[in-house]
Amino acid sequence: MTDSFRAPRVLGVGFTYLPALPRAFYHEAPIDFMEVAPEELCRERRALGRSALTLVPRLLAEAREACAGRPIVVHGVELSIGSAHGWNQAYVDMLDAFCAEWPFEWHSEHLSFQTVPGTGGEDVAVGMPLPLPFTEEAASLVGERARRLLARYGVPFLLENPAHYLSEVYCDPGLGDESAFMARVLDRGGCGQLLDLHNLHCNAVNHGFDARSALARLPLERVVEIHVAGGAWRDGFLMDSHSDRVPAEVWDLLDFVLPRTPNLAGVVYEVLPETSGHLDAATVAGELERVRRALGAAARGGTHAVA
Questions:
Q1: SS3 for the chain, per residue?
Q2: What are phi and psi of 217, to 5 degrees?
Q3: In sequence order, what are the residues at sequence separation of 6 or more whose Cβ sits closer than 8 angstroms to the Cβ of residue 199?
Q4: How far apart are CA 31 and CA 284, in angstroms?
Q5: How do 112-117 and 123-131 pair as beta strands?
Q6: Looking at beta carbons, which pairs linking 122-131 to residues 24 or more positions away fall under 8 Å?
Q7: For 30, 53, 92, 226, which has the most beta carbons within 10 A of its beta carbon?
Q8: What pLDDT is recorded for position 303?
Q9: Among residues 264, 265, 221, 229, which one has the least CA distance to residue 247?
């Protein structure tokens, strides 16, 4: 199989588009590019038992004005690329329309599934993204879909390592663990990885493994984008709520991995719109400056890292 992985141009320091933040913040903050979740700019409707995501012109215009001409990347949450019965076609149709209106440098999705078929053939949301079984069959299914997305949009496609809260996930004996599964999917799909260091940290804490050892088993040359974020504890689990400042453990992982990612194009401080209320503009700007310092330190150390 021909490897279709190609690294995009370097963008630098990125941030999530959050409608709640004042427009002046985006115009003045130390941001090189923006990460947009297009579902946040849509309304959902149903007709004849099928759902559709329709871009809202006002929300799209507000996002474009806030992003102030910066390059954008797309980070989706509703594709459900790992659903056995098929991905969410409503999301793909919406992304077609979004791409025609606002071209992006690359796009990404979570390596997970969140819909199952209903009794009437409709997609039924399970409530949260769930991990795929770590199997050759799942790797082949997602890899084939990733290649279709690469051909459809003509820009890099990335898969994000998800956080999950299951104590056991089935794994084929020949694969070994989640890192090996991600490596197999990236190889089958010819795509890149969005390495979410906070998700990795959550899984390491919740499931008792060493995050650096897991990183060492990933094909880090496939990492195009990195997420850093902060979360919160709930019911005994460290959650990937992406609702707080970045903890020290995640900054340490960033410093560790930057010299090892030769095709890195951007690092994003990720905050989710629904959990962003207590993060003010000054706090966000401080976290972005710390990302830039980490990149600068890696560059001064003689690595390839984004400066």
A1: CCCCCCCCCCCEEEEECCCCCCHHHHHHCCCCEEEECHHHHEEEEEECCEEEEEECHHHHHHHHHHHCCCCEEEECCCCCCCCCCCCCHHHHHHHHHHHHHCCCCCEEEECEEEEEECCCCCEEEEEEEEECCECHHHHHHHHHHHHHHHHHHCCCEEEECCCCCCCCCCECCCCCCHHHHHHHHHHHHCCEEEEEHHHHHHHHHHHCCCHHHHHHCCCHHHEEEEEECEEEEECCEEEEEEEECCCHHHHHHHHHHHHHCCCCCEEEECCCHHHCCCCCHHHHHHHHHHHHHHHHHHHHCCCCCCC
A2: -95, 0
A3: 160, 161, 162, 163, 227, 240
A4: 11
A5: antiparallel
A6: 122/49, 122/50, 122/51, 123/51, 123/80, 123/83, 123/88, 129/77, 129/80, 129/162, 129/164, 130/164, 130/166, 131/162, 131/164, 131/166, 131/169, 131/178
A7: 226
A8: 58
A9: 229
The answer to whether the beta carbons of residues 182 and 134 sit under 8 Å apart is no
Residue type, 232: A
Mean per-residue pLDDT pooled into runs of 10, the chain (307 residues): 81 94 88 96 72 93 95 95 93 97 98 81 74 95 97 97 90 90 97 98 95 96 97 89 92 98 97 76 93 94 63
Contact at 8 Å (CB) between 134 and 170?
yes
- Pair of tokens at residue 233: 């504890």
CB 133 within 8 A of CB 171: yes
Going from the N-terminus, what domains does the chain have, and what CATH number goes with each? 18-298 (3.20.20.150)
Residue 1: predicted pLDDT: 47
Q: Write down the pLDDT at residue 277.
A: 66
Tokens 């996930």 locate to 169
At residue 307, the pLDDT reads 57
Residue with tokens 């985006």: 26
Amino acid at 19: P
